[in-house]
Structure formats: C-alpha cells, structure tokens
Design brief:
Elements: H1 2-27, E1 42-44, E2 54-57, E3 62-67, E4 84-89, E5 98-99, E6 101-102, E7 113-120, E8 126-132, E9 139-146, E10 151-158, E11 166-171, E12 177-181, H2 188-196, E13 202-207, E14 212-219, E15 222-227, E16 233-238, E17 243-249, E18 255-262, E19 266-272, E20 279-284, H3 287-291, E21 301-307, E22 315-322, E23 330-336, E24 339-344, E25 350-353
Parallel strand pairs: 6-10
Antiparallel strand pairs: 1-25, 2-3, 3-4, 4-5, 7-8, 8-9, 9-10, 11-12, 12-13, 13-14, 15-16, 16-17, 17-18, 19-20, 20-21, 21-22, 23-24, 24-25
C-alpha cells in the first residue's frame, strides 16, 4: 500500500511539473519566432553599448536614457561597470548620446539604473526619478536636471519596505510617484520559482512623503508604467501575462482596472506620446531567449504602437521586429517629432527617422 501511495504522489508531482512547465513556456512565448519588420532610416547610437533600458523624452525633445542595468537572471556585457544616464537632443540633425555628469556625494560606483521618469514643476524645474539597484536592492533616486551644465544634481534617495523590487516608475509630482514591483522576491532562485509557479504577487505602489500604499495587485510581473496626457489613466505592462492594463486613477491615488489589452509579446516599458496619447511598447517576442541567454540564439526585439487605447477597439501595429542581429532584448520605444528611439535591457540602442 505504501508503494502505491508513493507512486501516486510521484505521478501527481510529475503531472503538476509538466503542467507548470507548459504554462511557463507559454508565458515565455518560447515557441515564437519573428518575421522581420524593418525600418528604413535607422542607425545604432554611438556610445551606448550596455543597454538603454528606459527612455523618457522632455517636451523640448531632450531624451534621457538609463544605461548599464545589471539585474538578477539577465545578461550584462559589463557587470563591473557602474550605470550611466545619457542625454540626446532630438532636435539636432545628427543627435548623439552624451553622458550626464552626476553631482558629488552620490555613490556612482553602485549606480545601477533601471526605469526612469521625468517631472516638470511649475517653475520649469525638471526632476528625474531613477529606479536604482545598489547591491541589487531597490531605491528611487531623485535628481534635478541642469540642462546648461549637462548634469544631474542628486536631491535624495527614497527607500521603503513596499518598494522592494522596483522595476519602473512614473512621476506624479516633485516628490510622489507610482512604481511597479516586478516580483515579490529579489533572490534569483526564488524569483524563478515565482515565475515558474505562476504566482501573481507583483504589484503597483503609490509613494508620497506622507503616504505609501499598494494601489494595484495581482500581476504576474508588473513592468512598465506610464500615465495618459490628461493624467486620468495609468497604463501598466504585465510582462509575463502579455498584457497592458488600463487603470483609472482616483483622487485618493488608488487605481481601478478599466480594461485589458491582450497581446502576443512580452511588453516591457511603455512610452506615452504627449501629443496623441498613443502608447509605444518595447517588447520581448520570446522570453526564453532573453532569460536563458545563448549567443547562438539571440533574443529578438519588437516595437508595438497602440493607438486609441481608451476606445472599444484600439489599433495595435507592429512597427519594428528583429531577430537580435541588430538589437538584443528591446525594452523601450519612445517617439518625438517623427523620430524613434529604441532601447534594450543590456545591448545597444537605435535611432530611427519615421
């Protein structure tokens, strides 16, 4: 009888493992291969060799770019080098990336930037919020951007127990924001188990100096986050679910789900065109190639353009798709005046004229 029970238990565990493996591969889009979609007027951006994980563009065409992310479970071509913030003026005929100088007193050696967001105050001061992972922990660094000096003045570091595994951020004022926690655990083994078992423990947090709270939950991997031009709606990319959630923002900063867009790709960061309200997504067409890096089977890149996202039938257009020979692991796409920047988690960045 005991042997029968052991065999039954082993069979149950094997069945559960098989079901979880199939579901894990589905969420990773493991079987997807890309049909290329090319853009004619593109060039790699000189000086960006270690990723452009997130990009935000100011209304005057100045693009801020985070580079050099080192993250558990992901490839890094320069694991011992600190991260950087680059500036590109998209009004120039031939824009180039310039590294911004960061003020003294800030720990540059452990700078590990991830998602970024800008906020312009009433006096035209520009604040840059940067998700940082010093020693693989999570903080939010607040800088003031000084354009005349091509520099960032560090103002403060924000830490909180609810900001435990921050991926991306959207600034709501000079001292408050929404942030996504992409996983519950930070340890790479526990994170893998969280993903493999399909635990929806990822969330969105609202932070202000007087209140910090969870405002949305139940995501498999809340990743990119951004806000509509009228500030009424918040868009959240759930990487592992292949979804973009449209949330309504309330006066108390809570979020309620309005609708969900189902997609066939792993959506990373989201950029909102301030003039049209269109949403641009940098995407990973096949997550297995991203998380299990193989130089013989490179992770591809994909850019999607979502028009009329609040309507009953939004239009989703695949703008760019490439198998990794040019760009590996696309994480963001941002537009300004007919120009497109495409960034990656750990590889290069592309400048295109549409």
């Amino acid at each position: 009888m005991g042997k029968v029970l052991v065999l039954a238990l082993a069979g149950l565990l094997a069945a559960l493992f098989g079901e979880r493996l199939m579901e894990f591969r589905r969420k990773m889009n493991a079987s997807r291969e890309l049909e290329p979609v090319e853009l004619p007027n593109c060039q790699l951006i000189k000086g960006i060799e270690r990723g452009a994980e997130d990009i935000d563009i100011l209304p005057d065409g100045l693009a801020l770019i985070s580079s050099g992310l080192k993250y558990p479970g992901l490839k890094s071509f320069a694991p011992d080098k600190p991260g950087e913030i680059f500036l590109m003026d998209l009004n120039d005929e031939n824009p180039r990336a310039v590294e911004l100088r960061i003020s003294r007193g800030f720990d540059l050696a452990s700078f590990n930037p991830h998602g970024i967001s800008t906020y312009i105050d009433k006096d035209d001061s520009v604040y840059l919020f940067v998700v940082n992972h010093p020693e693989f922990k999570s903080t939010v660094e607040v800088f003031k951007f000084v354009e005349d000096e091509n520099s960032l003045v560090h103002l403060k570091t924000i830490r909180h127990q609810l900001l435990s595994r921050v991926n991306d951020i959207v600034a709501l004022g000079p001292d408050h924001f929404y942030a996504t926690n992409d996983h519950y655990f930070f340890n790479s083994i526990l994170t893998f188990l969280e993903l493999f078992l399909g635990l929806p423990w990822s969330n969105v947090v609202y932070y202000s100096p007087t209140e910090v709270k969870e405002v949305a939950s139940g995501f498999y991997s809340a990743n990119g986050i951004n806000i509509s031009p009228d500030k009424k709606y918040v868009y959240i990319a759930d990487l592992m679910a292949h979804r973009v959630h449209v949330m309504e923002k309330h006066a108390n900063w809570n979020l309620t789900q309005l609708k969900v867009l189902e997609l066939d790709t792993l959506v990373d960061n989201l950029f909102v065109d301030p003039y049209t309200g269109d949403v641009w997504g940098g995407c990973h067409p096949n997550g297995m190639k991203l998380f299990f890096y193989d130089p013989e089977n490179l992770p591809g890149s994909e850019v999607i353009w979502i028009q009329n996202i609040l309507s009953a039938k939004p239009t989703v257009t695949q703008v760019y798709a490439e198998n990794g020979s040019v760009l590996q692991g696309c994480s963001v796409a941002a537009v300004y005046s007919g120009k497109l920047l495409i960034g990656t988690v750990f590889h290069r960045a592309l400048y295109c004229e549409l």
